[in-house]
Design goal:
31% helix; globular; 327 residues; 11 helices; alpha/beta; 6-stranded mixed sheet
């Protein structure tokens, strides 16, 4: 459950580059909060300033105006060493880890907590093990970094951020270059971690469909207005997401691609996932699914799925490909 008081607050913030009179202001008037126990997806078109805000939040570049607070403390008063114990970061940059194993890379997350001896204590090792278990990568711990796939490496980097044991995690496009299965797995992992660890997790992403299903809140950045902070479904229903992205051919009300349905109407009888995927195939080929039609398709969902078609005759087929070809 998210806390009532924000762990990070942004007040009247302006971000960009340079100094007066040659400032390049990218965003201003930003007022936002991050709460513990929530996954927040930071979204917007390319070039709108998402990475610039992330760099400002983590102290990598100064704000042009305004203030940031972590646990009520102004970040301008927080040292680099203290910041490393408050905010962990996962970027999209390729990691050159030489001959390191996954566990050795994850262990680097403990460095902000180590003294001059730079030796891991029993409690440090316990945190490392816990981070590996929380990200379900125990099978990877002794693998060399260069042996890992992109999806495996991203989970190792998330484990390293967890190992840093900070109340805030910030990730910049963690699903970039990943396949669908790994994108879903990473976003689900981050959503679960926000709840199980009570961390505030901010993730910049372009994965609109996955964000709408997994995020607790969305920060929506448009080119001509300050960032909007809202509940995902509210941003769909009030039109803000469509306004920012200018979506074409995607129905936000259903979360599906809009299809041209001009080939005729069919009546579909069935339920469960077989019904949903049959409907998807029919609509993709231009058939509207209605309650009553001369063409009736009945899904036979026994040990093997089959489709019975009634249209001036009766036919039974075993694949959707056959079904579409008969229509």
């Amino acid at each position: 459950m998210a806390s009532k008081s924000p762990i990070l607050s942004i007040e009247n913030l302006a971000i960009g580059y340079g100094k007066p009179p040659n400032q390049n202001m990218i965003m201003d008037g930003l007022n936002l909060n991050l709460f513990s126990g929530q996954l927040v997806c930071f979204m917007g078109p390319n070039g709108v300033g998402k990475s610039t805000l992330i760099r400002t939040m983590i102290g990598a570049q100064p704000p042009l105006a305004g203030q940031l607070f972590i646990n009520g403390q102004n970040t301008s008063d927080i040292t680099i060493a203290e910041m490393a114990r408050l905010v962990s970061v996962v970027l999209t940059d390729k990691i050159n880890a030489g001959n390191m194993t996954a566990q050795e890379l994850i262990a680097m997350g403990r460095y902000p907590h180590l003294g001059w001896s730079v030796s891991l204590s029993k409690s440090d090792i316990e945190v490392i093990d816990q981070s590996i278990n929380q990200t379900n990568i125990n099978a990877l711990r002794n693998r060399k970094i260069y042996e890992l796939s992109d999806g495996q490496l991203q989970k190792v980097m998330i484990a390293r951020a967890l190992c840093q044991d900070t109340p805030i995690m910030v990730l910049d496009e963690p699903t970039a270059h990943l396949d669908l299965n790994n994108r879903v797995e990473v976003i689900n992992l981050l959503s679960d971690l926000a709840k199980s660890t009570n961390k505030a997790i901010l993730m910049a992403t372009h994965e609109l469909d996955l964000a709408l299903q997994s995020a607790d809140r969305i920060w929506l950045a448009g080119p001509d207005e300050p960032i909007i902070d809202g509940f995902p479904e509210d941003l769909v229903l009030n039109g803000k997401i469509d306004e920012v992205f200018g979506l074409k051919g995607f129905d936000l009300k259903t979360g599906r691609l809009e299809k041209q349905l001009g080939k005729g109407e069919v009546s579909l009888i069935g339920d469960g996932h077989a019904f949903l995927w049959t409907k998807n195939a029919l609509e993709r080929y231009g058939y509207a699914v209605v309650d009553e039609s001369e063409i009736v398709i009945n899904i036979i969902n026994d040990s093997n799925i089959a489709w019975q078609i009634k249209n001036k005759g009766e036919y039974t087929v075993n694949t959707l490909e056959e079904l579409i070809s008969l229509l």
